[in-house]
Amino acid sequence: WLITGGCGFIGRSLIARLLAAGTPAGHIRVFDNLSVGTLDDLRGVVAVAEGPASWAADAAGCEVVVGDIREREAIARAAQGADVIVHLAACTGVQPSVEDPLFDCETNVTGTVNGLEAARAAGVKRFVFASSGAPLGAVQPPIHEEVMPRPISPYGASKLAGEGYCSAYYACFGVETVALRFGNVYGPLSSRKNSVVARFIKQALAGETLEIYGDGSATRDYIFAGDLTGAIIDAATVAGVGGEIFQIATSRETTVDELAERLRGVLAGFGVDDFKVVHGAARAGDMQRNYSDTTKARERLGWQAATSLDEGLQATVAWFLERDASKA
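The structure assignment produced for this chain is given below.
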């Protein structure tokens, strides 16, 4: 398994799940520029081998290749010998793409093409691409795979381009690509994320004010990382899904106001209640409503989310509190 962006939240969550399922650490290689996640973050879930692991089942840990997905030669070297590439490395989020659309394009479009070209040259069997609902833009939910994409942010446009290149590499070169449109992912190990669940938890534990962008009526589909990583593994291993796109979420719509109230209840159960919630200005490029129809994933991958929002928030808050206690 070659995991680009493997030091990040989803990458580490996936590695933890692979190890729990019996995958040897030496059969996992991480390619990361360390711009967000760190080697210490990675060591929290897996031992890191000294020197090249060469896919050895008895290696002391997983190999880490430090490099940037915009560097074609670097990702090509890292892909040698891999059976599966899980392409998580990206410029993530709408707001960063609005602030610097060129960097977003270089990372998400050129970086994805570099990964696909590396897979083609190395004969990699499966390429799993992390996408999102952003390519579809401001459409009436539930969103599904047959909706016409109309992105309203540079991030959505770059992810749509990545999906297009995945389709092209499958049709032209036979690289078995699978694009997964993630919902809003949350869970343990997300301390470096600035998405709404992680941000709210960190702010609440610090006694800071939680700011909701807009009037709180915007909706999202919040998926627990433990469910998401199962979908990634299925996308990498289930036969007959090359060239396909799947919505990976819960098929449940939750307003940001409702999320904040549910989180307030969970935090109160842990004795955390010294914070307030306010509403601020809406952000450019954000969709008002977004949740997914995951029928295709259920029928073709045999996958569906199993963790309720309350269960997921409980586990996530517990992890943050345990992390803070270990640092005290």
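Interim note for the steering committee: The mean pLDDT is 95. The chain is about 40% helix and 15% strand.
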